[in-house]
Amino acid sequence: MKASGRLASAGQIDVTIAAPGKQGMSLRPEIVMIEDGREFRWRVQKFLGMFDAEHGFRVVPEDTGRCRFEQFEVFRGILGGAMYTRQSKALNTGFQAMNRMLKRESEKRARDRV
Question: In principle, which of 29, 41, 51, 63 could form an S-S bond with 79, CB 3.0–4.6 Å?
Fold first, then answer.
């Protein structure tokens, strides 16, 4: 996943999502929530609202010095189920790879700070 743009509530960013070995998909989602250091969500609407997808990233504090990263997606609209069925395997594979890389980078930065 690659993203660029200014992070501002109600703003838009440019996102490219590609599952490993697959061609990328470009999106221009609207930012629907930013809570600094805690949560970030965007939303894509297509086909006159017949497809609506909200994607979110959340950091949940746990024990001292630890946290849990959550990533979630909600598909809505008359085409939501069909789009999920068609895209879910590739999206899940790509997001799992992204989560592993994010975990490695986060742990590296935590070690470098000590």
Answer: 51
The answer, yes or no, to whether residue 2 has pLDDT greater than 90, is: no
Q: How many domains does the chain divide into? A: 1
Q: What burial letters (b/e) apply to 84-108, b meaning 16+ CB within 10 Å?
A: beebeebbeebbeeeeeeeeeeeee
Q: Residue 6 is part of a domain; what is its CATH number?
A: 3.30.530.20
pLDDT tens per residue across span 42-97:
999 888 878 898 999 999 999 887 889 999 988 888 988 887 777 777 778 878 88
Q: What is the spatial distance between Cα 60 and Cα 49, in angstroms, rounded to a whole number?
A: 31
Range of the domain at 93: 2-113
pLDDT over 90 (residue 3): no
Could you tell me the pTM of the whole model?
A: 0.77
